[in-house]
Amino acid sequence: MQITQRLNNNVVMVEGESGQPMIVMGKGVGYKAYPGNLINESLIERKFILKNEPKSEIDKVSTLISEIPMQYISLSDTIIKIAEKELHTEFGLTMLISLTDHIYSAVERKKKNMSIVSPLHWDIKQLYPLEYAIGEKAVAVINEAENVGLDETESTAIAMHFISSGSNYDSIQQAMNVTKIISEIISIIQYHFQIKIDQNSINFSRLVSHLQYFLIRQVKGIKMMDMSEEMIRIVLDQYQSSFQCAEKIISYLNKIHNVKPPLEEEVYLTMHIERVRQVEM
Asked: Would you say residue 167 has pLDDT above 70?
């Protein structure tokens, strides 16, 4: 791989074997490395293919490494590797940039005794236990590396980076908005049936996952597959109580969030509610 731009001693831009521009990182990978040189591949620790707008991504990386100490980029990379292992996925350069910026800001705020309250802390902890656990591990890594004492709620903020990246959200704010609505919908279900849903159950996880994509479809105007009239009739006849609960949810979404899903979505929601209801009652 040939170097096309040196950003600092630890970060360079290269041209991959297929001609694709890439950012590579590693301790000393950019030391005395100049455009046109072949990179010492044994020093590479991370590779990021620049897919969409290489110049824009290069500018973001350049800004990042000029404004934030390299140690925070390394910290972020360590945490991302933990998340990739736990979530069985890979995150790109965008995650590295956003998480590094967040970690640096969180540590700086802590040093100044400034705190930000997360209003969705308990919702996220309950709805996304895996991502929250990653957030907890991240806080422990940061606290040890930087000798700080980040608050427990910082686990939530870090978890949101992985939640928003993994569920087709357009932004962390959109993910937070959807999380708040999911929590409210679950409250409606529990109140309707006078039950307490086991949040460690597989059915609860399936319900949360369905509600995520259900709400994303409404936000983005994505139409789900058609459902036969016979299928609709069977669900409405057999799951009347769950359908009544679904109607309450649709009414709430329409009144509070100006969202009016089609009947097919309401029927599909009914089926998920029924699955949880059968287990908990």
From this structure: no
H/E stretch holding 49:
strand 46-49
How many CA atoms, within 13 angstroms, populate the side-chain half-sphere of residue 140? 7
Instruction: Quote the mean pLDDT of the chain.
Output: 87
Q: Are 3 and 12 in contact (CB under 8 A)?
A: yes
- Classify 15 as helix, strand or coil: strand
What percent of the chain stands above pLDDT 70? 97
| Residue with token string 């990739």 | 84
In angstroms, rounded to a whole number, what is the distance separating the alpha carbons of residues 81 and 207?
Answer: 28
Tokens 């705190």 identify what position?
Answer: 115
CB atoms within 10 A of CB 61: 24
Mean pLDDT of all residues in 187-200: 91
End-to-end Cα separation, the chain, in angstroms: 61
pLDDT score of 116 more than 90: no
- Are 162 and 87 spatial neighbours (Cβ–Cβ below 8 Å)? yes
